[in-house]
Design goal:
The protein is of the alpha+beta class and 110 residues long. The chain has two helices and seven strands.
Length: 110
């Protein structure tokens, strides 16, 4: 599904799962859904509101211009660069909201 004319096609899709947290940790303004006694929060909303809106770039990686939850790469990007950027997103969300995002793709290292 790579389209050379569409830089947003170079992604792993949604990069973080929607976190399930105790209802007491619900974030004001963040879309949420019931999950048993807990709530499921919108990871995309958390990413955007932690400073990584659509089209945020750092080096050869960043968020999709269409959806802040998809991380994209440009030619020359490395896996280390992508994972470092994802780590910055996780840290920013944790610092701002006290919620830890979990990556959806599995990173395989030799």
């Amino acid at each position: 599904m790579l389209d050379p004319a569409d830089p947003d096609s170079r992604s792993a899709g949604s990069f973080f799962t929607n976190p399930v947290v105790p209802a007491s940790m619900a974030v004001e303004g963040c879309p949420s859904w019931p999950a048993g006694d807990d709530v499921k929060l919108s990871a995309a909303w958390l990413v955007q509101h932690a400073g990584f809106g659509r089209g945020t770039r750092q080096g050869h990686v960043g968020t999709s211009s269409r959806h802040s939850l998809a991380l994209t790469t440009e030619p020359g990007a490395t896996a280390d660069e992508l994972l470092a950027f994802a780590g910055k997103v996780v840290d920013a969300v944790r610092d701002r909201f006290g919620v830890t995002l979990v990556p959806e793709p599995t990173a395989v290292r030799p």
